[in-house]
Amino acid sequence: MSVDQLKAFLKKMQGDAALKSEVLSSSTADDVAQIALKLGYEFSGDELLRFSGKKVGKVTVRKNDVPGEYN
Predict the structure, then answer these.
(1) Which among 3, 6, 8, 9 has the fewest CB atoms less than 10 Å away?
(2) What would the pLDDT profile of 18-37 be if each residue is shown by its tens digit?
(3) Is the pLDDT of residue 51 over 60?
């Protein structure tokens, strides 16, 4: 898992209001991973989901369960 990359991205997000807004408006964890990749941070959507419930600085990763979503 690219925990260091994920943590670094979350720390960057704390200080960048535009990035935070973009991440919060994303539909999926894979979308967030693609945003991060454009900025040079490598982790997958699955890795982000497995990080759910953990906190980095002021950011807590939470998985949103979408009604009607199938596993």
Answers:
(1) 3
(2) 999 999 999 899 999 999 99
(3) yes
